[in-house]
Automatic annotation (TrEMBL):
This is Propionyl-CoA carboxylase beta chain. Keywords: Ligase. Residues 276-522 form the CoA carboxyltransferase C-terminal domain. Gene3D superfamilies: 2-enoyl-CoA Hydratase, Chain A, domain 1 (3.90.226.10). It comes from the Bacteria. The keyword Ligase applies. The keyword DNA damage does not apply. Residues 8-267 form the CoA carboxyltransferase N-terminal domain. The lineage of its organism: Bacteria, Bacillati, Actinomycetota, Actinomycetes, Pseudonocardiales. It is an enzyme of class 6 (ligase). GO terms for molecular function: propionyl-CoA carboxylase activity.
Amino acid sequence: MEYADGGHHSTAYRIADLADRRDEVERIAEKRAIDRQHAKGKLTARERVDLLVDPGSFVELDQFARHRCTEFGMASNRPYGDGVVTGHATIDGRQVCLFSQDFTVFGGSMGEVFGEKVLKVMDLAMTIGCPVIGINDSGGARIQEGVVSLAHYAELGRRNALASGVIPQISMIMGPCAGGAVYSPAITDFTVMVDRTSHMFVTGPDVVHAVTGERVSTEALGGSATNSEVSGNAHHRAVDEEDAVDFVRTLLGYLPSNNVDGAPEFADETAPDLTPADLELDRIIPDSINQSYDMTEVIARIADDGDFLEIHAGFAPNMICAFARLEGRTIGVVANQPARQAGVIDIDASEKAARFVRFCDAFGIPILTLADVPGYLPGVDQERHGIIRRGAKLIYAYSEATVPKVTVVTRKAYGGGYAVMGSKHVGADVNIAWPTAEIAVMGAEGAVRVLRRRELAGLDGPERAAAERRFVDEYRDRHGGPYTAADRGYVDLVVQPSQTRLQVARAFRLLRGKRQVLPAKKHGNIPL
Ligand code: HXC
């Protein structure tokens, strides 16, 4: 190429030089990344960003940053970008900041410059108050850069902690993530994994074997099933990367950009009168207390368009956490699921719901609670694993939540389950019960076994069975039902199930102006 002054200081040379550098990053390096990533069924860091954001909206930052490490022969290998793509873009027209780790450069590991880039984009997100999305595909701290890598991971953890409750933070796990690449996501609000191609562990199977002698496959140790159903580290298990991106885009549609702004509002097109779907709720509760039904059917009949997005669906399925809209506005739904373990609250269910309630409260999202709960799960295993301490989290979370809270008791609300599932006593604003509600310390059978033990012990066979039936009926007549609680004002309204959508909408409308201030303190001390 000819340059006006024939030298490399000319404008034309510099423009051409920029094009060359861009070509190195966006075509040559990208081609290498495509070859490596596609062979593993994964997209590249750049392709993932393109899939996630509005077309043409991504502005990449620090594209030409390079590491400064001279150890382990690194001086001769200084790729542009240092293994992470960072920048800002829009999703459905709303601003987000993001970083996407490139596994094809030093295993997507975080060194000093990589860290500086990620911290910079986190700081930008905090400055402007927008969600930050981290796409993780990384071996964690870059071994060659030693303590500097650790320092930057710790700095990232601090950024995550300080951003918690200020801007929504979403992590996408898109490869074999280890070390800091999983600690940081663990602090964020939502973590999405992809089936088969993504893994999360503090240390991989080789280190596990070296340290403990255990042999375990990558999938069993940190696959998407393990993390979304057993450990609960992942809030969504996507079938592929496109599905993961769809989930994140949908999720963002329910969330405000920060803890000051409101969530996006949609047109209120909800029916002002009873609909056929509303009337179906009058038939949803089975006559037998021991028979189950699917609580998602209730949620679908309350939410706008019957739509809701379940969070943590595979983990503790006895508790449902979901985002939905009512009259075009986001609400968080916490509900027992009688179709799974009768909707009992175990450790996992308590922690799942507590974290969701705290997220909603931090971001001003009103909470609808649907209760049908036989209580906390008894058992040696649960006690040894700390159900006292971990079950208490849910009481704590509801009690400190100052957002509008509306509760509907559809059927059982027994014992601790009654108290914790959005009762008046933990601060709910409007409490509704269906006539099918049974609010009591425990179920009638259990109560009779305790209260009538001596009388029953003196009887045998059919005589004992008949007496037991009579006592159970007596107990249910006197202590079951919603009316003892309604008599005390613990329940504000007893409504026919078909009226629920309209009454809940009216309650949240009533509460739009709610202001509640908690006692001043540095911070509380939730039992961890
Ligand atoms: C530098 C790394 C790396 C790392 C992987 N690579 N992890 N380079 N630092 N941490 C490089 C590999 O050398 C290899 O380079 C390339 O990335 C691909 O790695 P493979 O091992 O071939 O890939 P795979 O078989 O898919 O295994 C992925 C993996 C494994 C499970 C992540 O690489 C692994 O176990 N890495 C180490 C994980 C780890 O212990 N990290 C440190 C954690 S300490 P070449 O050149 O061969 O392609 C930490 C503390 C944070 O993170 C503190 C937070 C507060």
